[in-house]
Amino acid sequence: MYVDNSVFPAQINDSNAVISDFLLAENPQRYIISLFLSSLYIIFLFPVGFIGNILILVVNLYDRGRLSAPDLYFVNLAVADLLLVADSLIEVFNLKRGYYDRPGLCTFMNLFQQGNMYSSVFFLTWMSFDRFVTLTGSMGHSMPHPRLSCCLIWVASSLLTVLPFAIAQRQHAGELHFCFANVSQIQWLEVMLGFLLPFCILGLCYWRIAQVLGQSQKVQGGPQPRPRRQKALRMISAAVLVFFLCWLPENVFVSVQLLRGGADGGTLWQDYPLTGHAARLAAFSNSCLNPLIYNFFGETFRDKLRRRFTLRRAIKEWNSLPNYLAEIESRASFRKRLAIY
């Protein structure tokens, strides 16, 4: 997430609030459109993301003994998405960009979003590589030790977020209004490692997968992927596609700003605040859409969900059985008393 450098002046003053109010009064239409976009996000996407990610965690953790490697990766992805969905509320209601005036909150927001972006793209990249290994038979079977892989992904995401932050904080020690999101080197790192490099790896994996599947269909008696593998591949492919469609606007916006270098004295976020707000909402939408992908394409998850509700219904009926038998016995006793009279 890029933050306007002009928000953190060298001297402490209240000019930001005045400028913000002036822009609001000068562009009421822009404010109304931003409010409309935020309302759409809150009404349609936020409930799906919040409830959907919780449902993924509840269903899978209840049946954690039967988690496959893709399910385990999606559970960890749901954790990252749930954190970002909760964090998105600050950005959604930040129509006047108020939290940018507070360097501590600004830094927290950017740390949170950057860590989530790294963890999301790393999990999706690893899931795609795992499907590539499984379907192409490059290493015989799927990648071993998926739990260890998840731990390493979280560690790598944390290090890529915390280490640049620590270096930037050391370089800008003593600056009261410093927010590490303003450092261009960190933004280049985010675009390269969090977007462009994974895009190349994913493109190579799916290109090889398409080649192998095409060859197996041409050769008679060639190895055919099992239906569950095909469905797992479709689920991961859809998740990857949605990730890049949602994060592409913000990465393009940041890249254009970095290439421009701020030579004109302003930033794209300052010159086009409505476009910037829409780009951030699109990025947050990725965490809301992942549960829908997992539900529509994840056959294993639907089986677990049906089994969970079937089991709850059976337990409820079993618990109500003594009351039902007692009621039957009571009615039989009543009929006997009536027969006596």
UniProtKB/TrEMBL annotation:
It is a multi-pass membrane protein. The chain crosses the membrane at residues 31-62, 74-95, 115-136, 148-168, 188-209, 236-258, 278-297. It comes from the Eukaryota. Keywords: Apoptosis, Cell cycle, Cell membrane, Cell projection, Cytoplasm, Cytoplasmic vesicle, Cytoskeleton, Differentiation, Disulfide bond, Endoplasmic reticulum, Endosome, G-protein coupled receptor, Golgi apparatus, Membrane, Mitochondrion, Neurogenesis, Nucleus, Postsynaptic cell membrane, Receptor, Synapse, Transducer, Transmembrane, Transmembrane helix. GO terms for biological process: apoptotic process; cell differentiation; cellular response to estradiol stimulus; nervous system development. It is found in: Cell projection, Axon; Cell projection, Dendrite; Cell projection, Dendritic spine membrane; Cytoplasm, Cytoskeleton. Residues 52-294 form the G-protein coupled receptors family 1 profile domain. Its main location: other. Signal peptide: none annotated. SUPFAM superfamilies: Family A G protein-coupled receptor-like. GO terms for molecular function: G protein-coupled receptor activity; nuclear estrogen receptor activity. InterPro entries: GPCR_Rhodpsn (IPR000276), GPCR_Rhodpsn_7TM (IPR017452), GPER1-like (IPR047143). GO terms for cellular component: axon; cytoplasmic vesicle membrane; cytoskeleton; dendritic spine membrane; early endosome; endoplasmic reticulum membrane; Golgi membrane; mitochondrial membrane. The keyword Nucleus applies. PROSITE patterns: G_PROTEIN_RECEP_F1_1, G_PROTEIN_RECEP_F1_2. Belongs to the G-protein coupled receptor 1 family. This is G-protein coupled estrogen receptor 1. It comes from Notothenia coriiceps.
